[in-house]
Amino acid sequence: MTRGDLDMGYADMGYELDRRQLLRGAAAVAAGTVAAGALPAGAAYAHGTSADLVIHNGRVLVLDERFRTAEAVAIRGGRVLAVGRARDVRRLVGRRTQVLDAGGGTVLPGINDSHVHLNALGLNFPPFSYGVDTATIDELVAVVRTAVEAASVPGSWIRGQGWNDNRLPRPPRRTDLDPVSGDHPVVLTDFSFHAMAVNTAALRLAGITRDTVPPPGGVIEKDADGEPTGVLRETAQGLVRAVVPAFTADEVARSIDAGVTLLHAQGITSVTDPGITLATLGLYADKVRAGTLGVRVSALLSGGTAPQQLRDVLAAYRPLRGIDPRVLRVAGVKLFADGIPTAAKTAWLHEPYLDGTNGSLVIDGTTVAEQVANLHEMIRVAVRAGFQVGTHATGDATIDAVVAGYLKAMGRDWRRADLRHYVIHADLTPRATLRTMARHDIGANMNATIKYLLGRTLDPVLGPARTDYQWPYRSALDLGVRVTSASDAPVTYPNWLQGVMAAALREGMVFGGAGGGVAGEAERITVPEALATYTRTPAWQDHAGGWKGTLAEGMVADVCVVGGDVLGVDPHELVNLPVTTTVVGGRVVYERSAGPVATTEAAAGHERGAACLRAGKCCCRLADELRA
Ligand SMILES: [Zn+2]
Ligand SMILES: [Zn+2]
After folding, report:
1. How far is the CA of 33 from the centre of ligand 2 (A)?
2. 602 neighbors 262 (Cβ within 8 angstroms)
3. What SS3 string covers 525-553?
4. How do the domains of the chain map onto residue ranges?
5. Are 421 and 389 in contact (CB under 8 A)?
6. Residue-level pLDDT at 192
7. How do residues 44-70 score in pLDDT, each as one tens digit?
8. What is the distance in A from the centroid of ligand 2 to the CA of 444?
9. Cα of 493 to ligand 2 centre, how many Å?
10. DSSP state, 605?
């Protein structure tokens, strides 16, 4: 796909709304009802009507509550004009209609990845950061040489990640990097985040010499002559981190475009970017005004970890003006309540980890009671301001504290307020809590792709029962919880087909010879159910079920075409199906060129994700670190 695809003007996408329409649209978004412009049934075939785009020769999954299927879909003015039998839809093909052959594949509503750190996603990839998980030092050096050649600013930092000294014969040294790095400082973090390799320029900028005393818990590796080799371990990495500049606003803005390109190639047309700063919100707003934001973004503002932080954010926040809420909307705030239940053991559990330790809340406070009180106060402040709240909570004790806070803050009036709070990750939500969530329309935002990465690797940490139960999709759906799925990219690669596969099979990826096998047969869901967690239900979560998330007539024309029969194939094969076309607001933003599915980038992304989960670095934290 070309750069030009990003420069889509929303005027071309059916977004040329006058003020009245805009207000009507906003009201419809708020009410979650059918948006302005929905077509009355039958109007599509009125004499002389022709479509802008017709997609045929595929199985169309409307993904509405009735799970309607169809043979073709017609699009006009950025909306679904008709969906039905091929011979009926064909009547809408006029002289200027673009006709797209789905090649016998599957036509779905555009995918909604409901938890993606879009503002950090692109920063994981060149030119912002280079993958250096190579088998040899020579290959690693070649990557650095490429990065240096591509760098446009003299003396700019070259960043890389993923080297693995289990795979390499030894860690990379400055003497490897210096010959190719010119005046560019180079910093390469290893796969585990426990070590980094830097060149001489970086050592110099960090002021590290043969005489530097490492901070407690840190190692500055030295050669036989006592000179630093460039390898820094544990806390010694902080000496260099302190001098690596944060990405500039311009770099982040460009990385968002790169991230959107990557999402389009996955058929993703809507995302929630959780926990953004007001500055990042400004970047998104600028893109919308310039007509260059290629996906629909629901933003959760970062609420911090203390009530005063949240109050400060809300005091500084100004509602967006003159921006179509269907393209960019502040949905609410994101709170961060605990860690993750991996080997890092930072999720807060009712029953400790197998080794007897436990995680904790990460909310400010000197006692658990104080932390819970602060968490509940933050939820109350957000809810009183009329915000939806999404809270990162993975351990069962944390989830219970969060849901209790939601109930308290929602009060008796919750149905009218209709804020649709949710638990982000929701790994170990107890069954009783799922029941409470279902009764109060509290959603669960789960991570099938992370389940795939973890497989059975947590058996020695959580024990087999909790490992099986982690992300209880089946239980949650059976109890009536609104379940959404999300990649948490850049934690995993945003490959929703892999998520559908994992939700249906509960099979883990084999990573370093471990992790495979089924984890939680009882929590399997069907492929159609999994598809709803990526389309219709996140639209509900976005208060947008009336205008996106299904391919019914009148809905916005966000479409994902998959080259293969999503419902018919063995679920193991889902991950091998290519996304062939992506349409946003009626406009084709991605078309796959012929050739094999590009899985190498995805595989590399997953390996990195698995490694970072093991290091306990993941979730929303990773994104923050990438930005810092
Ligand atoms: Zn998280
Ligand atoms: Zn996250």
Report:
1. 29
2. no
3. CCHHHHHHHCCHHHHHHCCCCCCCCCCCC
4. 3-107, 129-241, 249-534+592-627
5. yes
6. 80
7. 676 678 999 999 999 999 999 999 999
8. 14
9. 13
10. H
Q: Which residues in the chain land under pLDDT 50?
A: 1-41
Of the candidate CATH numbers 2.30.40.10, 3.30.460.80, 2.60.120.1520, 2.60.40.2250, the domain formed by 3-107 belongs to 2.30.40.10
Cα 133 from Cα 27, distance rounded (Å): 49
Q: How far is the CA of 219 from the centre of ligand 1 (A)?
A: 30
The closest ligand to the CA of 393 turns out to be 1
**Predicted local confidence at residue 247, as pLDDT:** 92
Residues, beta carbon < 5 Å, ion ligand 2: 488, 619-620
What are 414-438's pLDDT values in tens digits?
898 999 999 999 999 999 999 999 9
Can you tell me the distance from the alpha carbon of 535 to that of 545, in angstroms, rounded to the nearest whole number? 9
Has domain 249-534+592-627 been given CATH number 3.40.1000.10?
no
Nearest to 147 by CA among 163, 171, 130, 125: 130
Closest CA to 602 of 565, 568, 576: 576
Cβ atoms of residues 143 and 280 within 8 Å: no
The class that CATH gives domain 129-241 is alpha beta
Residues 274 and 422: their CA atoms lie apart, in Å, by 12
